Amino acid sequence: MNQKTLHKITYGLYIISAEKNGKLNGQIANTAVQVTADPPIMTVCLNKQNLTHELIDSTGRFTISILSQNTPLEFIGLFGFKSGRDIEKFTDVKYKMSSNDTPIVLENTVGYIVLDVEDKMDAYTHTIFKGRVVDAEIFNADEVLTYAHYHDVKNGKSPKTAPVYIEEDEPNFKSQSEAYQCSVCGYIYDPAKEDPSIPFDELPEDWVCPVCTAKKSAFKKMV
Fold it and tell me: pTM to 2 decimals?
């Protein structure tokens, strides 16, 4: 079976956010789907290991912030490859609280949807939350970020907790270019494909992964 066939299914890319006792958190998700119009019902599928899952499961409320196509990889990395158990993701992010007291991301977004959980279904490693839409708004007319654009244009990666994550063999670079791979998100820095072409060793020490913002020391040389 070719699991990559599943990548042909069209998705968007969103930040799912929640709050409990003053703790704000959000994560990247692509499995947000409208299932009915009247009443307006949506579902999201989240990994049980994630803090956002824990908060939604406890409070029964969440928001969906719709990302713009121009969203920087660093911003996606903040919500997609870092854990809210280790950092406060909203410290330097512009946001406002929704009508059900959950955070709405105001940066790099085209709009938002506010939901109250009506039901949930176990899905092995994940939970599918069914939510009723209680509020929604459009900020601007920017193009929305699709999962295909994230992968094909931005060269973005999927975290291991994502529903669509497929483990791939590491490519074998035989060129003279010195390729290094991020041990956090899997991003590959290959000087032969960079503009400008700069060997990894010559990158400044404060350089970080463009996907997950991991430090240069997190990169391992590929063989």
Answer: 0.82
